[in-house]
Description:
Helices cover 57% and strands 11% of the residues. By secondary structure, it is an alpha/beta fold. The strands form seven sheets. A seven-stranded mixed beta sheet has the order 10-17-18-7-19-20-21, with helices on both faces. A hairpin with a 2-residue loop joins β8 (419-424) and β9 (427-428). α2 (14-46) packs parallel to α5 (165-184). The radius of gyration is 41 Å and the shape is extended. The protein starts with a helix and ends with a strand.
Amino acid sequence: MERNPIRYVWARSRGVHCLAFLIIAALLPVVWLLLLVPRELVDMVFLGDAGADGQVNAFLRLAIPLSWHFGGERVLFSGFPLSRDQAFTVGLMVVALLVLLRAVLRVSIRLISARLGPSLADDLRLLLFRHLVAERTTSDAVENAITSLGHRVAAVTPFLGRALAAPALFLAEGVIVVLFVFTLNLWLGLALMVAAMLDAMLVPAREAERDTMLRRTTAGETEAIQMGRHAVERLPAIRVHGTADGEASHFAERLANVANKNRPPLGQLTVLGIALRTVRDGMPVLMLIVGGWLMMQGKLTPGGLLAAVSAAFLLIRPVEAMALWTRERHAATQLFDEIARSIGDLKARARRFSDTDLPEHWSQLRIERASIFDPVTSHRLSAVDIDIPLPTRTALVTDDEGGGHIIAAALGGALEPSSGEIKLDGINLLNVPAARRARRVALAGHTPIILDGTLRQNILYGASDPAGGDIDAVLCDVMRTAGIDDEAYALGLSTSVSSQTAPRLAEQVVDVRRAIRAELSANGLGELVDPFEPNRYNRYGTVAENILNGVPVGDTFREAHLASNPFLRAVFEAEDLTRPLAEMGFAIASSLVEIFDGVPDGHPLFQRFAFFSAAERGLCADMVARRSERRRSAETGRDRDRQIALALRYCETRHRLGVLDEAMEKRLVAARHTFARLLPPSLRPAISFYEADAICAAASLSDNLLFGRIAYDVAGAEDKVHATARRVLSNLGLDEDVLRLGLSAHVSHGAERLQHLNIALIDLARCLVRQPDLLVLDRVFDGLSIAEISALMKRLDVFMADGSLIAVVPSTFDLGAFSRIIRFEGDHVLVTQAGTEPAATTEPVTVGGGNAAISAQS
């Protein structure tokens, strides 16, 4: 990697910087004219010999003053003949236009720098990341690269944007200003140039002293933090011995010592500050003095003196900015050196792949004298020799963390042999680039991951971009083979449906809803779903769900905010429900405090009363205590909010505390109508209502199809209802659409819906979608029943009909589906035919000693 940040920036942004240089070139005549026009106004208009109606013969005359050796003065523009009033008006307009144009051009440079910095930083991060993901194992180099990926690149980002544009701008402005002053008078130009050089030397010295002062000042901060931590460790002893005052005195002494030892160089900094301010403020004064002396000699006009003083003011900013840029470049060079060192370390550890591809058809897998170490389990295989004719169905039988798991990881590329080779028809797998190897040799289950994305994105992870065709149909077949179609189907039912996500399904939701209702009734299961009806309380919904009669969109009517929602509280007041709901909530709190008295956190009882968390137990106990002691408290308003919140989360058929009767249900239904009737237009987007003849866009597909709540208190109700719904969807040819909708469902680590997914089987589907020639299974069967394993093996056998399958299995596994078996027992390897045991006289071959020579037999 390029270690010079200037060359790095130029190599990756030549076009953008050429544009910036063009803008800077356009800025130079603007700066020149900004000094020239005021001089012309003073000399020819303000102090001109012409009267009020006189003539200015050559206003804004442009000429290059050359010595007689070069032919004398060269006129570029002879100027305008204007009256004095016209010249005054035109001059002011030109000055205003030049000021505006200069501001626009300078802001354009800044915008280019602001856009360029993050873009170049992202390129640098991408370069680092590419080397990072090519690393085989975690190491110090990886940790160093991650550090560079974060704050080191962030620290250098501002400089990357202005690495070339800023110095070009400051140098160009400084040079053009000094050149203009030289055209006025040689001595005047020399004086300005010397003052600018002195300013440029003082700025870095002052900044260096400031850095020194900052480092010494922060030394006291570090000392104070350390002493504070030590004092916290001694807190019990401080309390026991009553030494708080003594600790404070010791703390003050230590701070004083640190302050004396790290006293900042205020004197030197003060001298530098005075010198810099004197030079900087003295530049215009110097121009005034030298220019005034030249005017007295008749060598400078009043307008020239004004231009010289203006030039001094214009030069201050570029000189300071150029000096600060030099310091930034030095710091950026150091950071770049660290980043380049990180990349160099990763490159040194990376494997050099040759441009090798695997043959189209294979006949032999050979592992020759391979020594493989697994740093996670600390298991090692040494000098292993195994030959497996292909295609094959081979079982690697192992009961510990080594053996077959290590061989599978090596075949899939998760581990690399420290010595020896793994060959497919003579091609060493270690020389094949990872992307090519993964397309032909797939390892499933070894390190399954879940991406923060849709199920479709998770399955397509590592697959090449689909080139036309119905990729979802392929994914559905793959999910059926991997055995995750039921989970994907459940995900589809829990996902919201719309004309964008599933147009065919969305069109038929209402018809399917009616068909499911008819099927349930025909089978005598109609009572298992309590439908959403506008004039009837849903017994299996919470109080809040019955009032809203819809699904919240956004946070306005979310359960966490519902009790304090102003509009809903206004509805409660209109229906005279505030006090009844608060009393209902208090009754719930009293019952729950009594039920959970002495129950530890995490007890299964909390799952039954999911609307009541362990964290709320103390609050509810305090609330009940205040009421029983008849105490007035500042918490009264909050108590009422908590009581109403508990009431809104309550469902009588689920929680069965006996606090909700039929009369209260009718009042809640009335509140439902009031809520819908009074809901202002501004709040209508915050909720999607349930309607019998329409889709509820915010609700899940399952809620839209059942259009009601399943009876919790009937055994097996959920399974019977879902089986009926799936049968109806299948009869209507819509089960594939539900599967496709499940592919669009979002899954991520920690998500509740992920608990029902087998991550290893998702990893298997991820491998199958690539249609590999050799499929290696490791830990895929963990957690599956015997029947599920048997069915999965049959599906995989059909899917890999023309390919090879190698699976790591325990010794209790049914090996009937395999043609070859390799047994691992600790550091020993035995090879037997399928369905047989090794002969009693067979000695185990020790692979740790380097003498293993094993041939898989059919």
